[in-house]
Amino acid sequence: MSTLLKITITAVLSLLLMSCNFDLNFNPGVRGNRNVQTMERNLDGDFNQIEVSRGLDVYLTQSDTPLLKVQADENLHDIIVTEIDEGVLKIYSSENISYSEAQKVMVNVEDINYISATSGSDVYSTNTIESNSIKLVTTSGADLEVEIDAQSTTLSSTSGSDIKVSGNTVTLSASATSGADIKARDLISESCTASVTSGADIVVHATEKITASATSGGDITYYGNPKAVSESDGVSGSIRKRM
Domain count of the chain? Predict the structure, then answer.
């Protein structure tokens, strides 16, 4: 990737990340009072999708026993929102949080097929998530780190965010743009399609087949010595095989 492109992407991402911490009135946000409390909340409805935003940390456990707990500074509990809307558990803060000792949400869910993290939030799995089909999405400086066992997996990362995933899947589709990173070397797939652009990076592992496309400073690295390989690297894109 050229130095100019790196500088441009860094500048743009810096502005995006700043927007995650300050609203249009440049409000610095609510400061936690350091008195951390853990409270259990009711789950009013079923869900199989999760959307997390605005800098919160979520720890996801696949379990037959539903559970939702919030661990945060006492004065932050009222602005940490957890609501279910048409099968989607939405977790976010209603106001900016400038400082906290803790802003964690612990979720147990039986079935999950979609996880989204945005605006500087972090999502982690505490055990292996089993699903027939699952889609993982990150944007705007968010991080998502999970272990999965799925038939079909889709990964999408953009705007300086990161996805790190391990486990097993039959088919994998991965796309990254605008300085994002997808680290899926430890996700063993049979067939993989990977697309990257605008200074983003993808690392995948495919044992049978890979179709890879890289442009505009994007990099793809693949492991697994797949038997069938299709590569398309445009202007300043890079595709590399590793053993």
Answer: 1
Q: Residue with structure tokens 């009711």?
A: 42
pTM reported for the whole predicted model:
0.89
How would you class 59 by CB atoms within 10 Å of its CB: exposed for 0-12, middle for 13-18, buried for 19 or more?
Answer: middle
d(CA 156, CA 163): 8
Domain that holds residue 127: 3-23+31-241
- What are the pLDDT digits (tens) for 13-25? 444 444 444 344 4
Strand duo 114-118 + 122-139: pairing = parallel
The reported pLDDT for the residue numbered 2 is 46
H/E stretch holding 91 reads strand 88-93
Q: CB of 52 within 8 A of CB of 118?
A: yes
Number of helices followed by number of strands (H, E) in the chain: 1, 18
The tokens 């889609």 sit on which residue?
A: 135
pLDDT score at 8: 53
pLDDT of residue 115: 99
Strands 181-196, 162-177: pairing kind: parallel
Residues of the chain with pLDDT under 70: 1-27
The single residue listed with the structure tokens 């442009």 is 215
CATH code, domain carrying 43: 2.160.20.120
Q: Which amino acid is at 19?
A: S
